[in-house]
Amino acid sequence: MQSTLDIELLRTFQAVVRFEQFLAAATFLNRSPSAVSLHIRRLEDIAGGRLLERDNQTVTLTSLGRRFALQSAELLHVHDRLLAGFASPTINGRVRLGISEEYAASLLHSTLSPLTSGYPQIELEVETASSGRLNEQLQRGQLDLALLVVPIETASADRPLHTFGTTEPVWVAAPGYQLAHDKPVPLALHGEGCPYRSVAVNTLNEIRRAWRTVVMSASSSALETAICAGLAIGIIDRSRVSAQMRILGRDEGLPPLPLHERQLVKAPGVPSAACEIMTGLINDHFRP
User: Which residues contact 158 (CB under 8 A, 6 or more apart)?
Assistant: First the structure.
């Protein structure tokens, strides 16, 4: 009997390709690492060979995997366009969407195509900023929807539309970086309003550890470049830790940081039909 391809297996494979780590892909998909591994093994059985080469840090595509990545991405695109085509194309309106900068690229990559093909009359306006700033704009009515990252224990009393799993901020530095205990901790930080910045600064102040800002930028890639160059210590999501970084902890005098969660929050009032469509597409993006 001829094998069939499960769309969810392809979504798992594309997530591993995107993040180059099983753990990061599992976090993104809200699945366990063992479930991700099982999906990949099932795909390799269907493909008739290894799609990925694995080591302790990252995964790389085999020659078969590279060909399969291109073809499966195209298949997913056609699949999502087909499903979107069944929905009514008459819905129109404007959606002002705020996204935390580190999630913008992956979220837009998966939602723009089904939005433009299935709902061409919906106008999407996107702003990337820190979660604190986006939440302020949301409450002032300057945004309709916002994907925020907030500490779990200080989550807003307002009920979010959806929550999409937890994130774990960790202290990171270049592999050879040595933190001097007798000097202020040099930090690479986002600006005010970033939840990771807030918990990191508050944690250092609570243990009476001096610190100084070496690099401040709204760009996650700029901060990660400074961290990997050994210029400063940063605070990033564990799923984004690369082979050019190492995680710091109690041995360096740095306590663990609290868990956060991703929340999709709407502006006060009843959301429009266009916002409901965008909410559904975002939910599909994070669906396990």
Answer: 265
For the segment 156-162, the average pLDDT, to the nearest whole number, is 69
The CATH fold assigned to 169-258 is D-Maltodextrin-Binding Protein; domain 2 (3.40.190)
pLDDT at 100: 85
Q: Note the CATH number of domain 7-85.
A: 1.10.10.10
* Cβ neighbour number for residue 62 with a 10 Å cutoff: 16
pLDDT of 89 reads 54
> Is the pLDDT higher at 269 or at 249?
249
Contact 190, 163 (CB under 8 A): no
Question: 93-163+262-286 maps to which CATH number?
Answer: 3.40.190.10
Rounded to an integer, the average pLDDT of 193-216 is: 92
Could you write out the DSSP letters of every residue in the chain? ------HHHHHHHHHHHHHSSHHHHHHHHT--HHHHHHHHHHHHHHHTS--EEE-SS-EEE-HHHHHHHHHHHHHHHHHHHHHHHTS-TT--EEEEEEEEHHHHHHHHHHHHHHHHHH-TTEEEEEEEE-HHHHHHHHHTTS-SEEEEEEEGGG--SSPPSEEEEEE-EEEEE-TT----TTSPEEEEE--TT-HHHHHHHHHHHHTT--EEEEEE-S-HHHHHHHHHTTS-EEEEEGGG--TT-EEE-GGGT-PPPPPEEEEEEE-SSPPPHHHHHHHHHHHHHH--
